[in-house]
Design goal:
6-stranded mixed beta sheet, alpha/beta, 597 residues, globular, 23 strands, disordered N terminus
Length: 597
């Protein structure tokens, strides 16, 4: 990371203007020493607070300019260097000359991720970590988590992060977990948040079985989920999809995740995002712990003047809940809105993940089974109608092509086009649905970060029947959205990144090349690769549109807030396989440098 330095130095005068500059390692910063009189006759009379010079990508019709000026947190001039110099006033204007250092561009957005959940787990539970084996989980990780919980006086043992690929051949059972902890509920979610491992007392608390072993719920009794059953006819402790969220709702969530915890992690999340170049972010699960503590803490932080990003919050509704009550709650959290906190989305799971056999797909999987469909079309239509009428936008996880068609139907029948109802991830899309998305202003936040594969993965998926026939090498589209005029954004889905990057430039490289740095793989599904400009637009102005703030942010344009990055590489022209190495040398929010502090 380049170090940003400031200095005062010698001056060079001309009759009508003055330019003072120094050359330093990283960024050149100078203070101009012209007078107000020299600038009389322009709006430059009072000068700008900041002038930036360099190669600047505006995200406005792919325009590249030389300079911009900022006053009171907003752009007051965007254009050539000579024009910007008129805004320089002695003793007032800070000037950053980034010429030849890299690229200046708008602050990025993350259209869907789970930083609230991931960071909460650090204080509320235990993270399993990558490549942990079932043996290590049972002998080291779980015992340590139980010890930590009991020493803290916790009412449950909570964790996250085991990987299906590592566990599927030797899945821990509730009996094995009971042998380590039988008195406190144990709940460990996988790295995608779609599956869970629990002990017997957790199943009893959730009403899935009795202490004497009597089974109360089994198989798919919980809508949208599966309780995996053992040879003895009782639950194994392995839960899939909504069976996991149902069970987790029976934890003592208010004690598990308090408002003080939420207030403690938001600054950490903010610094993580700003360091990666994100100034806009939609959190995909603001009520993960079945309370509104994250909403309350975010609003308090913004009202105190301590929030330096725009935070969107989604209220998740599960398929097993009382839908009308949940819709009311989702509309009610709008009371936590503030200048930079936007709690205006409902999150749903339409299906699971295609590669793990739970995507709602056509054709069926090779073994003849169909993935999970959490909602009927009529239900989705009515939910969309009610949510949009209350000023709430739908934000729906869907990966299978049949699920996509069902959601698009519902958005068209029940939704308002101006509400920009959004689909998240989308592994497979039927051709006819692209046109309908465009016609009805349906937004997409794409899972393009997974648009890569090591050599041999396609063949392995084909051999194992992990995807429907013909979908093995057709994963997460991107170019088709641009071709049809659909507003498409990128996201990291952190922490469910499955080894993919979560920063904007790592994602950008995958979108442009179909290859992830360091992975042994050929370019993947090249028909869906995009240009560098399209990739930047997807993570800047398009995310502002997804968040309904494109008139205020997302591009470098006069009148908008000055949220921008100084990137240490010119990602528009550097070798394409080096894009992932780009980092923000500095992140600015509303005209102030917020990273590094």
């Amino acid at each position: 990371m380049k170090k940003i330095m400031r200095s005062t130095f010698g001056r060079l005068f001309n009759k009508n203007w003055m330019l003072a500059a120094i050359l330093i390692c990283g960024v050149s910063v100078f203070t101009a020493c012209t007078s107000n009189k020299d600038n009389a006759g322009t709006d430059e009379k009072s000068g700008a607070d900041l002038v930036v010079i360099g190669k600047i990508f505006t995200s406005e019709n792919n325009q590249v300019v030389e300079a911009f000026a900022v006053k009171d947190g907003k752009y007051v001039y965007v254009g050539d260097k000579k024009g910007a110099e008129q805004y320089i006033v002695n003793g007032k204007t800070e000037v950053v000359d980034y010429t030849g250092k890299g690229l200046v561009m708008p602050g990025c957005g993350n259209g869907h991720a789970h930083y609230s959940m991931a960071y909460a787990l650090r204080v509320a539970g235990t993270t399993v970590g990558g490549n942990a084996s079932p043996e290590k989980f049972l002998t080291e990780i779980l015992p340590a988590a139980v010890k930590k919980a009991k020493e803290a006086g916790a009412t449950s043992v909570f964790g996250f992060g085991w990987r299906l690929l590592d566990f599927q051949d030797n899945m821990p059972t509730r009996q094995q977990i009971d042998a380590i902890c039988s008195d406190l509920p144990v709940y460990f979610a996988d790295d995608e948040g779609h599956k869970a491992l629990v002990n017997t007392v957790m199943l009893v608390k959730a009403g899935i079985m009795k202490e004497d072993g009597t089974v109360l719920k089994k198989d798919k009794d919980i809508r949208g989920g599966e309780i995996v059953m053992g040879a003895d006819g009782t639950p194994t402790g392995y839960l899939k999809e909504q069976a996991g969220t149902f069970t987790r709702s029976h934890l003592d969530n208010e004690s598990l995740f308090t408002i003080d915890m939420a207030s403690g992690i938001i600054p950490e999340i903010e610094q993580r995002l700003l360091a990666e170049g994100y100034t806009m972010y939609v959190d995909g699960w603001g009520n993960y712990f079945f309370n509104t503590n994250f909403y309350k803490a975010a609003q308090q932080m913004d009202k105190a003047g301590d929030l330096h990003m725009v935070l969107g919050l989604s209220y998740e509704i599960e398929s097993w809940t009382d839908v009308d009550a949940a819709l009311k709650n989702a509309a009610d959290v709008k009371k936590y809105a503030s200048t930079r906190v936007k709690p205006y989305w409902i999150k749903l799971f339409m299906d699971g993940t295609v590669e793990t056999g739970t995507g709602f797909v056509e054709p069926l999987y090779p073994d003849g089974h169909q993935g999970l469909a959490n909602w009927e079309e009529e239900e989705l239509t009515e939910m969309t109608r009610k949510a949009n009428a209350d000023g709430v936008t739908m934000h729906v996880h869907v990966m299978g092509n049949k699920g996509v068609t069902r959601i698009v139907n519902a958005f068209i029948k029940g939704g308002k086009d101006e509400m920009r109802n959004t689909l998240v991830h989308l592994r497979n899309v039927d051709d006819a649905d692209y046109k309908r998305m465009a016609e009805h202003n349906i937004n997409i936040t794409s899972g393009v970060l997974w648009h890569h594969a090591p050599d041999g993965l396609v063949e392995m998926m084909r051999e194992k029947g992990a995807t429907p026939v013909g979908m093995e090498d057709k994963s997460y589209p991107m170019k088709s959205y641009f071709d049809h005029g659909i507003n498409v954004t990128t996201h990291s889905d952190y922490p469910a990144t499955s080894g993919s990057p979560d920063d904007p430039f790592g994602i950008m490289e995958i979108a442009v090349t179909g290859v992830m740095a360091g992975e042994n793989g050929a370019p993947y599904w090249t028909e869906e690769l995009v240009t560098r400009e399209q990739a930047i637009n997807a993570m800047t102005i398009n995310i502002a549109k997804q968040m309904f703030i494109e008139d205020e942010r997302g591009s470098i344009k006069t009148g908008k807030y000055a949220d921008f990055l100084l990137v240490d590489k010119d990602v528009l022209s550097c070798p394409v396989m080096e894009i992932h190495a780009a980092k923000p040398a500095a992140t600015y929010f509303e005209g102030k440098k917020v990273f590094p502090m």
